[in-house]
Amino acid sequence: MSQEFYQYIFAKQQNLEAVPSNREITAWALKVIHLLYPERTGQKFASIEDLKDEFLRLENELCDIMHATKACSNCDTAKLAKKFFENLPELFRVLNTDIQAIFNGDPAARSEFEVIRTYPGFYAISLYRVAHSLYIDDIPLLPRILTEYAHSKTGIDIHPAAKIDEYFYIDHGTGIVIGESCTIGKHVKLYQGVTLGALSVDKSMANTKRHPTVEDNVVIYSGATILGGETVIGHNSVVGGNVWLTKSLPPNSRVYHTPNHRILKRLSMRFFGEKK
After folding, report:
1. CA atoms of 146 and 134, how far apart (whole Å)
2. Which fold is adopted by the domain 14-155?
3. Which SUPFAM superfamilies does the annotation name (predicted)?
4. For residue 224, which phi and psi values (nearest 5 degrees)?
5. CATH fold of 162-257, please?
6. In whole angstroms, what is the distance from residue 104 CA to residue 112 CA?
7. In this structure, what are the phi and psi dihedrals at residue 72, rounded to the nearest 5 degrees?
8. How many CB atoms lie within 10 A of CB 137?
9. Angle at which helices 48-67 and 22-36 cross, to 10°
């Protein structure tokens, strides 16, 4: 390698933007989730005072993370951290509705404990809800790091800016994409491989409504692709597997993909030694 290449990499390292490691940031978020849901770790505290101290410690830890992040240099870190933890009971309430939606909607779920401990959908939703809470308070960078971490662990890609109401149910989850300007109502159920995306990817479309709106009580089955900021899936609709949609659906719609499969010839099978 040339001397110029070494110099370029060295200079890049010296001018690196200050931000704690992704591991440090996601560890903080997971500690918050584990505190809310001891089912994930078995963590117990000896007294309520010890529990309060842990919440305060995590509030200070969030402050420290923001202090060490250049993108947060103009933030009132103490005020933002305090606000996040003041909103935590509401975040916990909404997460509990997600757990109920998964438990009530999946015949394979034996208990809410099982949902909390094992379901990748709940794992991704819980990190999204933490990230979205930080996002709506204009905390930069950290929300995206959290949802991309969840994406790397579960294959479920939810942008932290997406607006998702309560009782959200992701089944299986792998391959789901929920874009930045998506709006999703209550009691919505998504299966694996669903894409709620933009019609086109162009930098000039930043800060515009590029992704669909999904109203209350909609079910979208695996592999469906729904695109466009003006596309609205009306309430109580069902979108079948592998459907491709770029136009709105009125409420109470049913849309299914109809593949044109034909059996041209029925083959008879004979094994070696068999007579006709």
Report:
1. 10
2. serine acetyltransferase, domain 1 (1.10.3130)
3. Trimeric LpxA-like enzymes (SSF51161)
4. -70, 145
5. UDP N-Acetylglucosamine Acyltransferase; domain 1 (2.160.10)
6. 9
7. -100, 15
8. 15
9. 160
